[in-house]
Amino acid sequence: MKNGSKLILMRHGQSVWNKLNLFTGWVDVPLSQEGIDEALEGGKKIQNIPIDVIFVSSLVRAKLTAFLAMSQHESGKVPVVQHDDNRKLKKWGKVHGKESKGHVTPVYSSWKLNERMYGELQGLNKDETRAKYGEEQVRIWRRSFDTKPPGGESLKDTAARTLPYFKKTIIPYLKKGQNVFISAHGNSLRAITMFLEDLSKEEVLKLEIATGEPIIYDYVSGKFVKE
User: Fold this and answer.
1) 20 lies in which domain range?
2) What angle do the packed helices 60-70 and 33-45 form, to 10 degrees?
3) Which of 13, 29, 30, 168 could form a disulfide with 35 if both were Cys (CB 3.0 to 4.6 A apart)?
4) Would you tell me the crossing angle of helices 126-133 and 135-143 to the nearest 10 degrees?
5) Based on the structure, what is the number of domains in the chain?
6) Count of helices and strands (H, E) across the chain
7) Residue 103: active-site member
8) Active-site residue among 41, 73, 99, 115?
9) d(Cα 205, Cα 224) in Å, to the nearest integer?
10) Catalytic option among 12, 38, 73, 185
11) Domain of 151: which CATH number?
């Protein structure tokens, strides 16, 4: 077992709705060309770090970001999605070749890592929404900790589903000395970062996570240290 392990967080690259300035949330849109380029560049920054396991949200923009980033990895390993929640896919998608197994990086997908659900704002233009409801109201919907947009989730709600999954499912891999790569979203990663860095509700509201930019933590003796 290694003395420690690494946790890599990456927010997905720009999506087509990010580019169009639309509230996206759980709407499952792909990356824009800029987002594709961001994911590839982000992958180059982690290409020399061994990666044992990958976690992604259930949304395609996070999955695409992980796959594109791994296409730059020096290991040449193939990210393979694990379908533990689908009996037929799990059985029929099993890898039998011993050599092939050694060139695979398992990928686990969970909705618990999804972006904050923006409810009735999803698909609305952000500038038009500000004009209709006011700058301050939209800021509260987007940046407060426990205020929900109409029909949507607050950051507190997002943390309530993301953090238990992170603690129960992901941290055990780090404890085993494995390096973990998470490709997810601005708000689910803000929730995780709030836990990793022990941020207050006020501090996390100021936290900005850039698209396609890897954030790396060393996990040693049960503690996370940002590189």
Assistant:
1) 5-226
2) 50
3) 13
4) 120
5) 1
6) 11, 7
7) no
8) 115
9) 21
10) 12
11) 3.40.50.1240
